[in-house]
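Hi W.,

Here's what went into the run:
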Amino acid sequence: MYGPSEFEGGVFSDEIDGGRASATIELSTSGMVALTSTGQRFGILYRDCQLDIGGASGRMVFCRTPDRKLTIFCEDRRFPAALDMESGGELAEQLSSVRGQRLSEGIRWRMWLLGMAIVSVLCLIGGYYALIAVAKASIVAVPVSVDTKIGKLALESLELEGTRVTDKVVVDAVQEMVSRLEPHSELKGLTFEVRVMDSPEVNAFCLPGGKMVVYTGLLKKAKTAEQVAGVLSHEMAHAIKRHGLQRITESLGIVVAIELMIGDVGGLVAIGVELGKSAALTSYSRELETEADIVGVQLLHAAAIDPLELAGFFEMLKDEGDDLPAAMRWLSTHPEHEARIATVRGALAKLGAQQYRPLDIDWDDVQQHLNPLKDDK
Amino acid sequence: MEATTRNRPSFANILVQLKPGDRIIAEADAMASMSATVEMRTRWSGGFFGAILKRIFGGESLFVNEFSSKVPAELVLTQGLPGDIECIDLKGTVLYLQPGAFLACEPGVSLGMGWAGLASFVGGEGLFRLKVRGEGRVWFSGYGGIFAKEITDEYIVDTGHLVAYEPTIHIRVGMAGGVFSSFFGGEGLVTKVRGPGRIYMQSRNFTGLTAWMNAHI
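Here's what came out:
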């Protein structure tokens, strides 16, 4: 047990075997005395004492002789105050100075740490977006066969609503739309294949690689074949602009970014199948949807199909909005109609003159062939 | 109890000659071989919560083994990494060990956790450090050789090379040079130690080994 002026500490001195020893430190009015565990006594007068603060805890007080041959140290929290009191204020200035020095060191360290933390966070965020940007740019280098593979596997594992429509009139009509649009795709190597499913869902989607699905609900809702072609052009634009791969990079971020950069697309196909499925059934970002609208308009324009038909389809959906069933997924996952109509008109305004030709489809006949098909509505 | 460190420095191990009544406490999995008469008792390293803390923050095992024998017997203790083992005889003094460095100690030595601070954490040395104190010998291990250095003023150690240090040593983390040379010179952050006191360093850095392996896998 230590008295009020006795503290547990230690001594550094060449006179000790090993150079250091634990010690009991006693403070008197003229100086301090340390009695080591080895039985040696060491003393420093306050007037000779040079103070420092440090140690592993950052609060250890070191008292040194001017020649630095003897150091007495103590970590006890009460020690500085006791030292100040017993020395009658003789060490007050030194104590205050070293405390201030350590405090400013501490503040500098905290500022440095804060700065490093901010820089690290900024580097992480910047690095993430840089990698995403590089990955997006790298998509160009990924062969289209990867898209095709993803789309094929995703379609095989998708549970599509309804049964496949085999009515020649209906299937040929949809195929005619795709055939008009396909030659104008800016991405070569894509083969668009469309299947019609009998379901009241007003929906259509295109998987990476060009595998498309159109529901009869959409065909029944459209007033003209060109409106359906408009919707299909939008969906085909997703495949042409490779939004599926972009979505995968956005979803998986850095992992895929690195895979794309190092050229390992094997793993990409596996994860792409799952994400390709979800990409087909859930929404793309607003940015990608708008891009698909613009590219869709360009595609229609190039195929000499009036893009305003697509705007007309949106107008119709807008007017009938409240009466439409909840199953209209195509509607619900896309931007506001007003905005889309404006996008279509804006994109069209930037294009040159074009002689639009109607599709070689008897839409009334198609509708008649659609009517006998089962409709849950 | 007689203990000899053999095969130093690359593949050091401790040959302990236990006399009746002798006890030695070792890190779990440190035993390489022992006489059939040696009794081994496993217990939490510093109580349940202490053990959890040591495991999570100190890089130590949840359990320690206490070896004893009623008849003269031998025991061989070793570490997982190739490297040296250092023995310090604590005489009521304290020693801080970096996470994972503790190997064995005599029963008079207590193992505790000490807050190492954010500096240590940023430097990759962990938020906590193992604090050994008391009367008796403590053995700690390093990757590669272990060498001691007396520090009088400030000294710089690359992170991952510091193994143990006395409580009089003040530690902070800083950059090896300027921003560019620190990060592009491969040194990154370094540990700045200020004396007086003694530090123990290891000649190899385990992080360096894992980085090298990662690059070759």
